[in-house]
Specification:
By secondary structure, this protein is an alpha/beta fold. The protein is 25% helix and 29% strand. The protein folds into three domains: 61 residues, Beta Barrel (OB fold (Dihydrolipoamide Acetyltransferase, E2P)), CATH 2.40.50.140; 215 residues, Rossmann fold, CATH 3.40.50.150; 115 residues, Beta Barrel (OB fold (Dihydrolipoamide Acetyltransferase, E2P)). 43% of the residues are buried.
Length: 431
């Protein structure tokens, strides 16, 4: 087996080294370690490999807590202590800003960190009938594979959900359509738990009875989804209390449907909203826009702090949910919501929002390039940009700084997905 000293980690948490002029990405290896590795893919300029033996271990190395680590593709960094994970992600953000945008933030914000385990309050579990492996599998995909990991627990799911995995396997195996249920979506609210079963064929009467018994035994809500996310319908119990999460700093409770987008990690989301409000500093009398507003995660705190806010989102269903949440929380008089495709934003579209003092942007992975290009001389003086993709943040930041006259005042990360390579970040721009 070849040996090498690992120089750094890449944005996916793989060790990086150079051998004979070629870059080698080594899964399971940490900076400073001497490892043996096995190559599983060779390309002209790089190789992909996996560490087979650690000859000299890093002080930051930890024993993975999950027995499926290395097989399940859900986590890639359990072998690195959590503090070092945050440092790696901060470096990924700074590297993206420099290499893509040629920018450095004036201030690096302290990393936002929360619980390392049991944090994943949203998950999409794959389901597959595999007779050769004993029946039904429920879980995440194996690493570098379309197969589902044969797992009976998951350390990053809440304990209640993790303990349910073996029973979910048995439940689906007992149904008349075990091969027609491709996924189960998990949505954990603060006072309820919902499972959404995607079904591709009708259930028999006996199936419905089993699902009801399962729901009552575990004290959960069961939804059935026959098509897209909007087809998810409450099956049992009826009626059931709305799913919700709270933002205690702002005295807010936000309701959501189990297929709505909400942040996976409630603790980090609270920290993220708190920091966003600190940076944005909404004031009474100001008018602020929240672009890609979803169901109001940032919109409502802005309104609670006294500013007028217009939330813009491409999904009509989410806009309706955001409006309902504004009414529920008594801030409807300071909010308005609009449906618009922000990926096709133009100066004219943005002008229709009216004069704005400040702007918050929280786009999906694709970023907000159309929005930042559409900003004109009347653009807000302050922008807070929340990102789940350092590369698109860096691309958009370059436009804001080099073309639109903003400064990159600060940037930092939140460890929204501990033990994974996902980087959630926040940046402040002013002009």
């Amino acid at each position: 087996m070849p040996e090498a000293i690992i120089e750094s980690l890449d944005h996916e948490g793989r060790g990086v080294t150079r051998v004979a002029g070629k870059t080698v990405f080594v899964e399971g290896a940490l900076p400073g370690e001497m490892v043996e590795y096995s190559v599983y893919r060779r390309k002209p300029s790089y190789e992909l490999a996996v560490a087979t033996r650690v000859l000299s271990a890093s002080a930051a190395r930890e024993a993975p807590a999950c027995r499926y680590f290395g097989v399940c593709g859900g986590c890639s960094m359990q072998h690195l202590d959590v503090a070092s994970q945050a440092a790696v992600k901060q470096r990924v953000l700074e590297d993206a800003l420099w290499h893509i945008g040629r920018l450095r933030p004036e201030v690096v914000y302290p990393a936002m960190r929360g619980p390392a385990w049991g944090y994943r309050f949203r998950a999409r579990l794959s389901v597959r009938l595999v007779p050769k492996k004993g029946g039904v599998l429920v879980g995440f995909h194996e690493k570098r594979s379309s197969y589902i990991a044969d797992m009976l627990s998951c350390q990053v799911l809440p304990r209640r959900v993790s303990d349910m995995l073996p029973e979910l396997r048995a439940l689906i195996a007992a149904l008349s359509i075990p091969d027609r249920i491709p996924q189960i979506e998990v949505a954990v609210a603060e006072e309820a738990l919902a499972l959404v079963f995607r079904i591709l064929a009708p259930l028999a009467a006996a199936d419905e009875s089993r699902l009801r018994e399962f729901a009552e035994h575990h004290g959960i809500q069961v939804f059935l989804q026959t098509g897209g996310p909007d087809t998810a319908t409450l099956f049992h119990p009826r009626p059931a209390p709305a799913l919700s999460y709270t933002l205690p700093d702002f005295g807010l409770r936000l309701q959501f449907r189990p297929t709505d987008f909400t942040q996976v990690n409630h603790g980090i989301n609270r920290m993220l909203v708190r920091r966003a409000m600190s940076l944005l500093a909404p004031q009474p009398g100001e008018r602020i826009a929240d672009l890609f507003c979803g169901l109001g995660n940032f919109t409502l705190p802005i309104a609670r702090l006294g500013a007028k806010v217009v939330g813009v989102e491409g999904s009509r269903a989410l806009v309706e949910r955001a409006h309902d949440n504004a009414v529920l929380n008594g801030v409807a008089d300071r909010t308005e919501f609009r449906v618009a495709n922000l990926f096709e934003a133009t100066p004219g579209n943005l002008a229709e929002l009216g004069p704005l003092d400040k702007l918050l942007i929280d786009p999906p992975r694709e970023g907000a390039i159309a929005v930042v290009k559409a900003l004109d001389a009347q653009a807000p003086r302050r922008i807070v940009y929340v990102s789940c993709n350092p590369a698109t943040l860096a691309r958009d930041a370059a436009v804001l700084v080099r073309e639109k006259g903003y400064r990159l005042c600060g940037a930092g990360i939140g460890n929204m997905f501990p033990h994974t390579s996902h980087v959630e970040s926040i940046a402040l721009f002013e002009r």
